[in-house]
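Working notes for the structural subgroup meeting. M.R. asked for a predicted model of this chain before we commit to crystallization trials. I am recording the input and output together here so anyone reviewing the notebook later can reproduce the run.

Input as submitted:
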Amino acid sequence: MLERPRVDTLYLGGGTPSLMSLEELTALTKAVHEAFDLSLLEEATLEANPGTVDFAWLQGARQLGWDRVSMGIQTLDDVLLGRLGRIHDGKVALESLDLARQAGFQRRSGDLMVGIPGQELGRVLEDARRMAATGLEHMSIYLLDLDKNCPLKADVDAGRLLLPTEDAVATVFEALQVELPSAGLAPYEISNYAKPGAESKHNSRYWERRPYLGIGPSAASHLGDFRWTEEGNIPAWVDSRAGVEIQELDAAESLSEIPLLGLRLHRGVDWNSLRQIAETKNLLPLVDAWEAQLAPFERGGMVIREGTNVRLSERGMLLSNGILSTFV
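Returned structure, recorded in token form:
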């Protein structure tokens, strides 16, 4: 039994919390305070859709203790927003960031999506500049995901719209690696940029392999070497009709998560520490095999060794899927 565990970060999202009324958010926040010890809380983030918030709601959320807001902006191009099925336009997106500032949020994040059909490099950079000009403290870069059925997916599948090529998307990511630092947002993870001290503490817990507890439909949790995901069907979850399958990682799987997740961070992984952990688990041959597989990437300048530290270069970040597959 976890009883009333102490947590230092909260994250409300994976849906659209801003669709809740302020009364509903108040009730939920109260329930969270009753269920957890928040005496050492460092960060409380909630996601919001720019088309569903107003000043009163944001101010109320801030007064409830939520101190960081993540806005699902995606793009400031109204044509592309329509293509994505979003209910806001570019003007509303920028206004929502300003409303959050006026409501007292000193930590604001905006999502910027790349890979949208019809999206041009110049427009992505313009969007990034305009978002950064609002003074926002954090920006997350996302690649369009068409796994779920939606009108845009149907258009792409039917050939009515074409996705940008991988090379075109890589060019956008490379340009953002230059543009965002010049706007004061430094990279700290493959897809995340922030002003100094404004990095997402909650999301960093994932990459650092720290324990986290997910509550709600499809929510994932990690405790020690155990992983589990809640039922995704909402009625079944509400009625507690679905079981949860718990996965226990073996020693090799647990070790592989250290570089698999840690190399996403710009600071990289302390490789000596990794080898020491491997030695206690009798897994040094596995680390030796990883080093052999990483050698070509290191010679190609995509993996960089600095003393005991190993990290990905900017080019390595662009090709991270191929490099990180070493540990899968």
